[in-house]
Amino acid sequence: MAITAKCTHKCPGGRECTCNGMIRHEHHICRTPGCACHTAEAYGLEMVTDAREAVYVPRLARLEEVDRDPTA
């Protein structure tokens, strides 16, 4: 039997985290599939379309692409 402890944190949606409290983690998730903690945004990702294919990229990566000067 695995040794586990209840995580004392809450997910971004305000529900109890179901992760193992004995293991350090930064993303707290609950058991409710429609909760905000299960979205790409909760992990710092956003969906973009590249060559008609939907992919998830880090939110800041897209912003860095926009900020680059194409004439440099």
**Alpha-beta classification:** alpha+beta
Instruction: Provide the gyration radius in Å.
Output: 17 Å
Helix count from the secondary structure assignment = 1
The fraction of residues assigned to DSSP E strands is 15-25%
**Roughly what percent helix?**
10-25%
Question: Which word captures the global form?
Answer: elongated
Question: Which spans of ≥5 residues are poorly predicted at pLDDT below 50?
Answer: none
Strand line-up across the major sheet? 1-2
The main β sheet shows up as: 2 strands, antiparallel
Structure description:
By secondary structure, the chain is an alpha+beta fold. The protein has 2 domains: 1-38, no CATH class; 40-67, no CATH class. The chain contains 1 helix and 2 strands. It has one helix at residues 59-67; strands at residues 45-50, 53-58. Strands 1-2 form a two-stranded antiparallel ribbon.
Strand and helix layout:
Layout lengths: L44 E6 L2 E6 H9 L5
Summary of the model, kept short:
This protein has 72 residues and is an alpha+beta fold. It contains one helix and two strands, in the order E-E-H.
